[in-house]
Amino acid sequence: MGTFTIRVGIGNPEGGEFHWVNALVDTGASHSMMPASLLRQSLDLTPKEDLIFVLGDGREQRYGFGEALMKIEDRRMSCPVIFGPEDQYLLGATSLQIFNLIPDTTNHRLVPMPRLTI
Question: Which domains does the chain have, with CATH numbers?
Fold first, then answer.
């Protein structure tokens, strides 16, 4: 599968400015991950809990886990987010599902799901 990045706004669900980042669309990641410093210092967010996640190489790592407001194009949705390392900007499967979007890897864009299932 091809990979690509998209522009995503990250904000505090309680209000304020969005911080725009280029996030890698990663359907292999359950949740979106953004740098902890962005979430904590720039957006004044705190994790709701610490969880252990299995990384792509099989290692386990504990990260903070919480919620952020995300903006893709003109849509805003509240999404779960992992408080990750400085270089990690990932848009994971849960956020894509919340936005009802799927990746079009040929054209490097996100498109609406053709049909929603219950």
Answer: 5-112 (2.40.70.10)
DSSP letter (8 states) at residue 95: H
Q: How far is the CA of 76 from the CAs of 22, 52, 93, 113, in angstroms?
A: 16, 28, 16, 17
C-alpha span between 45 and 22 (Å, rounded): 20
**Amino acid residing at 99:** F
Give yes or no for a contact between 99 and 77, defined as CB atoms under 8 angstroms apart. Answer: yes
- pLDDT tens for residues 17-54? 999 999 999 988 999 999 999 999 999 999 999 999 99
Sign (positive or negative) of CA dihedral 40, 46, 8, 109: positive
Nearest to 4 by CA among 27, 33, 20, 25: 25
pLDDT tens for 50-91 read 999 998 899 999 999 999 999 999 999 999 999 999 999 999
Q: Which two tokens stand for residue 79?
A: 């999404």
